[in-house]
Design brief:
The strands form two sheets. Strands 1-2-4-3-7-8-9-12-11-10 form a ten-stranded mixed β-sheet, sandwiched between helices. The chain starts with a strand and ends with a helix. The longest helix is centred in the middle third of the chain and has 14 residues. By secondary structure, the chain is of the alpha/beta class. The chain is built from five helices and twelve strands. 42% of the residues are buried. It is 23% helix and 29% strand. It has one domain: 3-Layer(aba) Sandwich (Rossmann fold). β1 and β2 form a beta hairpin.
Length: 244
């Protein structure tokens, strides 16, 4: 794993990157939750389940959130056009994503870009990257978060992960959000359970007219997903990459 650094609008940004043996390769970005870090989130070790991919664990910057009114903890912007209260930079994390993608472009298969985010990282993926950079994303995934709406969002292969007892982000709210995403992807059935595992993990696949893989994983725990969820994320992305 390598630590890469860039200066964007006068502010240093960092990401921990795992490179495969052979490039060009697909790429997966993994955005941590609020008060997390790229290095800390790298303990997910997504690369263990997708050896062929570049896996990027970016570092967020101090950012205000509902639970952090002073913006002490590191995190990600919540909306397009958001101005960070500490750096005064507009769209600082969107610019960060653009720079990472540009700097690594020579090592990436065109249009094989996947993004995953947990909690605040998931809100960033769903509500900033998806509507703003959807044309560049082959597939997305979010956990313990939800899509505020489907405005300016194109149909997309998606894996959503939610805890039935999440005390931070309502499970019901996540279900309702996913229904909107299913409608966007033109879902044509009520779902088929394709996997059941420990910790109450149930994986459901929904068929869509647009043939966009649309998958929902639920589990019994709260905001933090159990360890057996981890492998499903890079495997989902890997399966999508093989179709491209």
């Amino acid at each position: 794993m390598e630590l890469l650094k860039w200066t964007i609008d006068g502010v240093e940004r960092e990401a921990y990157v795992c490179f495969p043996k052979i490039t060009p390769a697909p790429i997966m970005f993994a955005f941590h939750g609020h008060n997390g870090s790229g290095y800390g989130f790298s303990n997910q070790e997504f690369e263990k389940y997708w050896h062929e991919a570049i896996v990027v664990y970016p570092d967020g910057l101090p950012t205000k959130s509902q639970s952090d009114s002073l913006g002490v903890g590191s995190g990600w912007q919540h909306t397009i056009g958001e101005v960070n209260s500490l750096t005064s930079i507009k769209d600082q994390d969107l610019k960060f994503f653009d720079r990472m993608l540009l700097e690594l472009s020579s090592l990436i298969f065109p249009k094989v870009v996947m993004t995953f985010g947990w909690s605040n990282g998931g809100f960033f993926v769903y509500n900033v990257l998806w509507p703003a950079r959807g044309a560049q994303l082959a597939a997305i995934s979010g956990a313990s978060c939800y899509s505020v709406n489907t405005d300016k969002k194109s149909p997309k292969a998606i894996l959503h992960i939610a805890g039935k007892t999440d005390p931070v982000v309502s499970f019901t709210q996540q279900q309702e959000s996913f229904k909107e995403i299913r409608n966007l992807n033109q879902s044509i059935d009520d779902g088929t359970i394709i996997d059941v595992e420990d910790f109450g993990l149930v994986k459901t696949r929904f068929l869509t007219k647009l043939k966009k893989p649309t998958v929902f994983i639920e589990y019994d725990n709260g905001h933090l997903y159990p360890s057996n969820v981890v492998k499903h994320i890079p495997i989902f992305f890997r399966n999508q990459s093989l179709k491209l």
